Amino acid sequence: EVQLVESGGGLVQPGRSMKLSCAASGFTFNNYDMAWVCQAPKKGLEWVATISYDGSSTYYRDSVKGRFTISRDNAKSTLYLQMDSLRSEDTATYYCARQGILDLFFDYWGQGVMVTVSS
Amino acid sequence: NIVLTQSPATLSVTPGESVSLSCRASQSISTSIHWYQQKSNESPRLLIKYASQSISGIPSRFSGSGSGTDFTLSINRVESEDFSIYYCQQSYSSLYTFGAGTKLELK
């Protein structure tokens, strides 16, 4: 059974950093691209970033480029999102999602982790 | 960025009705559109891939159609468990975008 379990969320002050993790199991992690998708309270879904199966390529939405870094450790089957210079508008639930290398949709999602940026 | 416009924002129906939800892209995206369902306080679930391709485990009452800029998610005879929010997502551009969602609610 495919499982994606996020961790690392919580309350953080504006301008500070936070690192999210996503532990994957039930599939061959290094055969899939992975992504982060966020959802602000009472709002819709927003794609944040994608990393290729081998970590060689990364893609970001414009609003996080230069502040967020997506990475992965294939030996640990874990996906990360390093979030720096956090802003109040980054407050959201962050979902880890599996994406096929050629199948550019999100077929499995984690339960999500809440990040609140506030002083 | 490719903008996806979903309509209507809210659709009020009674169980047993059949409905169509629209997703329009700001430019032609072939069939690079995917549909998700999100129930209250749950993670999204993939319903349809590449405009019309079915997903294993998804009830057959869900179907998709369209190409270019206009796409439709159809639900044949809505059931009570279908009341949730539906999102479309494009993968034509590597900068993926989602529509704002259509809320399907009980009339």
Question: Over the alpha carbons, how many angstroms does the gyration radius of chain A reach?
Answer: 13 Å
| Biggest beta sheet attributes of chain A | 7 strands, mixed
Largest sheet of chain B: 7 strands, mixed
User: Would you list the SSEs of chain B in sequence order as H and E?
Assistant: EEEEEEEEEEE
Strand segment count of chain A? 11
* Broad shape of chain A: globular
Largest interface: A-B, 20 and 23 residues
Principal-axis shape of chain B: globular
Contiguous runs where pLDDT drops below 50 for at least 5 residues of chain A = none
Average residue pLDDT of chain B: 97
Report helical residue fraction of chain B: under 10%
End-to-end Cα distance of chain A, whole Å, is 40 Å
How much of the sequence lies in strands of chain A comes to: over 45%
Which secondary structure elements does this structure contain, and how are they paired or packed?
The complex is a heterodimer of chains A (119) and B (107).
Chain A lengths: L2 E5 L2 E3 L5 E8 L7 E7 L5 E7 L6 E3 L7 E6 L4 E6 L8 E8 L6 E4 L3 E5 L2
Parallel strand pairs in A: 2-11
Antiparallel strand pairs in A: 1-3, 3-8, 4-5, 4-9, 5-6, 7-8, 9-10, 9-11
Chain B lengths: L3 E4 L2 E4 L5 E7 L7 E6 L6 E5 L3 E2 L7 E6 L2 E6 L9 E6 L6 E2 L3 E5 L1
Parallel strand pairs in B: 2-11
Antiparallel strand pairs in B: 1-3, 3-8, 4-5, 4-9, 5-6, 7-8, 9-10, 9-11
Description:
- The complex is a heterodimer of chains A (119) and B (107).
- Chain A is mainly β.
- Chain A has no helices and 11 strands.
- In chain A, strands 2, 4, 5, 6, 9, 10 and 11 form a 7-stranded mixed sheet that branches. In chain A, strands 1-3-8-7 form a 4-stranded antiparallel sheet, with no helix packed on it.
- Chain A is globular, with a radius of gyration of 13 Å.
- The mean pLDDT of chain A is 97.
- By secondary structure, chain B is mainly β.
- Chain B is 0% helix and 50% strand.
- Chain B is built from no helices and 11 strands.
- In chain B, a hairpin with a 2-residue loop joins β7 and β8.
- Chain B is globular and about 35 Å long.
